[in-house]
Amino acid sequence: MFTGLMMNTWITATVVAVIAGVVGFFAVLRGSTFAAHAVPNGAFAGAAGANLLGVNVIAGLAAFAVAGALAIGALGRRARHDVATALALVMMLGLGALFVGVSSAYAAETYSLLFGEVFGVASTEVLPIAGLGAACITAVAILFRPLMLSSAMPEVAEARGVRSGVMEICFLLVLAMTATMTVPVVGALLMFSLMIGPPAAARSFTARPGFAMALSVCFALVTVWTGIAVAQATSWPLGFFVGVMGAAFYLAGRGWAAWRRTRAVRHAAGVPSAA
For the chain, what is the mean pLDDT? Predict the structure, then answer.
């Protein structure tokens, strides 16, 4: 389980989970979950085009992810953010469908871009993925204070001179970098599950931003590690376990939040809690 190619799997999956937990926390906090779905799917279209042309897949991923992020940011200033995101997603998915339809010779590669190849990560891919992961973390660390302020209290951020439009573009570019790193490993669809489930669950468990981010990373790591182990033992798809565990964490978080609210109401009313 921890030898040969499986070591590459554990290392890259760990890097992906950490990045998904950190970036996904801000996606949930900012209400940008639709963008977190759109950008990786746009990156998939770029990779499909790169496969068709016989050029580097990472270059195609990066080009379409960045283009999609910039399109969402630019259109979002002039229209509703969800409408702008939907338009960008539709355009990129249309291009992806064109690239896939032009040649069926790349069906296997296209499938892997949607669902990932976490069990087939080559040794030469580990270092670039780790490098992009470090770049994502560095970008979040540099932007942390203004990004947190504009995400949690946008009016206060504007009053303090933090331009919300600039922060939106910066976050979308970080999202694009994340998609470029993760889509070849876990796929566009699986990345969305990993980037939304654990962070949403973490926010249900606590309102403290630092603790919620750390909890988001922990949930993502547990989800990925458990999913890999069980998928290898059962030969079932990894995406199934990641999706189910993400939903389970979220439901547990909502249950915890509901229990705390009920307890607070009982305490305020002077009703003793059940032992």
Answer: 82
